[in-house]
Amino acid sequence: MRSDTPTDLLRLPAGIELEDARLIDRLQHSLPTTERPFADIAAELGMAEPQVIERLHRLLKSGVLTRFGPLFHIERAGGQFILAALQVPDERYAEVTALVNALPEVAHNYRRDHVLNMWFVVAAETPEAAWAACDRIEAATGLPVHAFPKEREYFVGLYLPLLSPAPRVGEAPARALPAHAPTAQPTVLTDFDRQLIAATQSGLPLVARPYDTVAAMLGSTGEAVRTRLAELLAAGVVRRIAAVPNHYRLGYAANGMSVWDVADEHVDRLGELLGSQPAVSHCYRRPRKAGVWRYNLFAMLHGHTRDEVLAQAEQVAELLGPACRAHDVLFSSAILKKTGLRLRQPID
Questions:
Q1: φ and ψ at 81, to 5 degrees?
Q2: CB neighbour list of residue 313: distance below 8 Å, 6 or more residues apart
Q3: What does the alpha-carbon distance between residue 231 and residue 33 come to, in Å, rounded to a whole number?
Q4: In the predicted model, is pLDDT for residue 346 greater than 60?
Q5: At CB < 8 A and 24+ separation, what contacts does 222-229 make?
Q6: What distance in Å separates the CA atoms of residue 169 and residue 161, rounded to the nearest whole number?
Q7: Could you tell me which of 1, 157, 10 has the C-alpha nearest to residue 71?
Q8: What contacts 46, CB < 8 A, 6 or more positions away?
Q9: What was the pLDDT predicted at 119?
Q10: What percent of the chain is modeled with pLDDT above 90?
């Protein structure tokens, strides 16, 4: 055990070793755009490069990690994400799941404990394509699609630590949020960008020089791939290059989408306050829907138990104060799909 590793570690989930946990904690943040990024991570953690690559292979194969590679923010390139929900009869749940998941535009899909019991995210290169996907789902399933497009993003950055206690609402220093820039011009994707997205949207190759391997697929150079990924990171089209964990396999068995009915004149101020809490992984303003949905502020909370998440929700209620008139927590009970962005027609 390294001398800087705490001796009073939280008990690790089954199948995750100490060195796995150190790697998972580190790679949820970022992978550098260097020539041999795994060697750089290995040097930082006191491991060997082959050991890092082998462990990542195993963690992905076993389902501890769901993806590893660039995480795209397609709205920064003129696209759109739409959170949508269905009310699916129990007897049709498997059928409807297959129909929804068949669309490449569906990036995530979760079963949640609510009357609206299927919640999915549509991601597409244009708003028109995203709304067309919602229409196709409605036509295929015969069920109304309740769409809640993002009106404002306050924070996105999932981090589920294994080797340190998870932060709690109001107990950790607030994080600084990026400046809100609603009029920022989107990045126009080039043909090379679209080829690069298509080549990496399912993950980076787990080899010593992953960017060179991607470059060979595109008939380019490793330097060109690294440079463009760095530019897309700076532009926000790529949020980060990182590992995406399976919440459940890391011991975070309770994952609640907390939703809040906040007075419209206060929602942006309180959304920024809520998004600044390290315990919140995603925080957005979304539209209400008359007769269906009263909530306009969404925040994801994670914990090892439902009681833990519900206690965090009560802390959020105190934080929001009297401007919040009601709230609910929709727990996920199954991951139905989690792939991230997929281009429908990548350029050859």
A1: -105, 135
A2: 256, 258, 301, 327, 329
A3: 10
A4: no
A5: 222/35, 224/192, 225/196, 226/33, 226/34, 226/35, 228/192, 228/193, 228/196, 229/33, 229/70, 229/196
A6: 15
A7: 157
A8: 2
A9: 98
A10: 85
* 20-24, 27-31, 344-348: range with lowest mean pLDDT: 344-348
236/136 Cα distance (integer angstroms): 29
**Could you please report the per-residue DSSP string of 47-89?**
--HHHHHHHHHHHHHTTSEEEEEEEE-GGGGT-EEEEEEE---
Which residues lie below 8 Å from residue 133, measured CB to CB, with a gap of 6+?
103, 105, 106, 122, 124
With CA atoms as reference, report the closest residue to 4 among 38, 41, 45. 45
Instruction: Give residue for tokens 């920064």.
Output: 76
Residue 328 identity (one-letter amino acid): D
What kind of architecture, by CATH, is found in domain 76-171+248-338? 2-Layer Sandwich (3.30)
Are residues 256 and 309 in contact, defined by beta-carbon separation less than 8 angstroms? Answer: yes
The vertex-337 CA angle with 55 and 218, nearest 5°, equals 65
Determine phi and psi for 96, rounding to 5 degrees.
Answer: -70, -35
The whole model's pTM is what?
0.89
The CA distances from residue 153 to 112, 179, 276, 289, in Å, are 22, 11, 12, 19
Q: Dihedral through CA 187, CA 195, CA 33, CA 161, nearest 10?
A: 80
Mean of the pLDDT values across residues 326-338?
Answer: 95
Amino acid at site 146? H
| Least confident span in 3-12, 163-172, 228-237, 316-325 | 3-12
Q: How many helices (H) and strands (E) does the chain have?
A: 10, 11
Query: Hey, what are 289's tokens?
Result: 């829907």
Structure tokens, 337: 């799909």
Q: Residues 267-296: pLDDT tens digits?
A: 999 999 999 999 999 999 999 999 999 999
The pair of three-digit structure tokens given for residue 31, joined into one six-digit string: 């992978």
The tokens of 227 are what?
A: 């440079």
Element holding 211 (H helix, E strand): helix 210-218
